[in-house]
Specification:
CATH topology of the largest domain: Rossmann fold
Helix content: 25-40%
Structural class: alpha/beta
Shape: elongated
Distance between the termini: 59 Å
Low-confidence stretches: none
Number of domains: 2
CATH superfamily of the largest domain: Vaccinia Virus protein VP39
CATH architecture of the largest domain: 3-Layer(aba) Sandwich
Radius of gyration: 21 Å
Mean pLDDT: 94
CATH class of the largest domain: Alpha Beta
Strand order of the largest sheet: 4-3-2-5-6-9-7
Strand content: 15-25%
Order of helices and strands: HHEHEHEHEEHEHHEEEHHHH
Largest sheet: 7 strands, mixed
Number of helices: 12
């Protein structure tokens, strides 16, 4: 990769600019440019897309995205120490990289990019789940983005793709799988990062569905799922008691056992229940 873009290895970039990873910012840098290029390729064909990247740090994934043909990249970096390194990448790829020194939670990619948009990021551990939830809950669906290719702690990645009956299955799985096709495309050991975190990491690729997988009112579905999983040890007839009147009768009418627990119920059945409650 260094030979392709003429830029120095990332360890040299970090040393030159004094960019030591900061725990407070959730930073763990991925310095192997072969791995960052592999993550960029996992996002699919980038040649016709703009890319929104969060937390580029010294720019390893940024370089991968540009080298793999991204039309334009908007890199949002909160840490001002990283800006000089990212500016050097912008010079190497004229007109294709815009860097914002900002909080990604406050940036709307539509203000800077042209559709189709893909979001690709080695997310800071401390805001990863919050960002994913925001991207999955826009005011209208389909969203502005076509796909998300995101690195999380492996435990979080497993929660996104979890199936009913597993301990990892919960609100995040239901939200992600209601609206996207989600799969883990790569796992990485701690030693792939500097500094090495205490956990393994995984990259999840989520492709937006044109419409939710099953019809349901989002607010009603969220209320049911929240109530069920907030008291996941309880049977549904108890955990959902405050969601709707005669909840046990409603569950029985749908063929859902009132004695089941939240992690045993499929996404489709949650949506069926949401439709029934919304209609009564």
């Amino acid at each position: 990769m260094a030979a392709i873009d003429g830029l120095p290895p990332l360890r040299d970039v970090i040393a030159t600019h004094g960019i030591a990873a900061r725990k407070a910012l959730g930073q763990n840098f991925l310095l192997d440019l072969n791995l960052t290029a592999k993550i960029a390729r996992a996002a699919g064909d980038l040649s016709g897309s703009d890319v929104f990247e969060v937390g580029p740090g010294p720019g390893g994934l940024t370089r991968g995205l540009l080298a793999e043909g991204a039309r334009r990249v908007l890199a949002v970096e909160k840490d001002p120490r990283c800006l000089p390194a990212l500016a050097e990448i912008a010079v190497a790829y004229p007109g294709r990289l815009e860097v914002l020194n900002a909080d990604a939670l406050e940036v709307d990619p539509r203000d800077h990019l042209t559709t189709p948009i893909r979001i690709v990021a080695n997310l800071p551990y401390n805001v990863g789940t919050e960002l994913l939830t925001r991207w999955l809950t826009p005011p209208t669906w389909p969203p502005v983005w076509d796909s998300l290719t995101l690195m999380f702690q492996k435990e979080v990645a497993e929660r996104i793709v979890a199936k009913p009956g597993s301990k990892a299955y919960g609100r995040l799985a239901i939200l992600a799988q209601w609206l996207t096709d989600a799969r883990i495309v790569m796992t990485l050991p701690p030693e792939a990062f500097t500094p090495a975190p205490k956990v393994h990491s995984a990259v999840v690729h989520l492709t937006a569905l044109p419409q939710p997988r099953y019809p349901a009112d989002a607010k009603v579905l969220n209320r049911i799922v929240a109530a069920g999983f907030n008291q996941r040890r309880k049977m549904l007839r108890a955990s959902l008691k405050g969601v709707a009147l005669e909840i046990e009768a409603k569950l029985l009418s749908l063929g859902i056992a009132p004695t089941a627990r939240a992690e045993e119920i499929s996404l489709e059945d949650y949506c069926r229940l949401a439709r029934l409650i919304a209609a009564t």
